[in-house]
Amino acid sequence: MKKLIDLITNQFALPLTSIHGRAHWDRVRENGLRLAQRTGAESAVVVLFAVLHDSKRLDDGLDLHHGKRAAEFVKSLRGTMITLADEYFEHLVYACEFHTDGLTEGNITVQTCWDADRLDLGRIGIRPDPQYLCTDAAKDPAMIAWAFKRSLEF
Fold first, then answer.
1. Which residues does 34 contact at the CB level (< 8 Å), separation at least 6?
2. What is the pTM of this model?
3. CB-based contacts of 82, cutoff 8 Å, min separation 6
4. Whose CA is closest to 72, among 42, 86, 51, 52?
5. In angstroms, rounded to a whole number, what is the distance separating the alpha carbons of residues 117 and 97?
6. How far is CA 79 from CA 44, 74, 85, 113, in A?
7. pLDDT digits over 35-45, tens only?
8. What does the pLDDT look like over 86-137, one tens digit per residue?
């Protein structure tokens, strides 16, 4: 994992201190792992999603194609930096590609990834709204409050 994070860090177009940088990745990872304990999501996918989903952002604004670029990046790392079973690999690619499209339906691992990211919206002044979350675990008011408080520590 260290080699993968080094690779991502070295090619990341934004400052690591940006709103989509390292602190965000770390919070998404922690959110995702906490959710996975309740949802049964595949934790390896959740952890990889956390560091990869914004890895191809070109700016902190409305970068509409960064999810697709991240998915292509994930595909390029298959067999070298990323070794997952086919099913889990497809979940990772899909989660990265569509994480900003507002979708809520899908495989529980994909949903957990999306929720982990959406629970970190406090860093941009938005309290997560349960109607945009996928899983019951993420919609739990205690989870939202916990994640929102953490996201304000940016």
1. 143
2. 0.97
3. 4, 48, 74, 89, 92
4. 52
5. 13
6. 15, 10, 10, 22
7. 999 999 999 99
8. 999 999 999 999 999 999 999 999 999 999 999 999 999 999 999 999 999 9
Question: Residue 154 pLDDT > 80, yes or no?
Answer: no
From its phi and psi, is residue 79 left (phi > 0), alpha (psi between -120 and 50) or beta? Answer: left
Q: Which residue in this structure is represented by tokens 């991240």? A: 70
Amino acid at 103: L
Overall average pLDDT of the 6-28 stretch:
97
Q: Which two tokens stand for residue 96?
A: 């990265």
User: For position 50, what pLDDT does the model report?
Assistant: 98
Residue 51 DSSP class: H
What does the alpha-carbon distance between residue 2 and residue 86 come to, in Å, rounded to a whole number?
A: 23
Residue with the two structure tokens 């191809």? 56
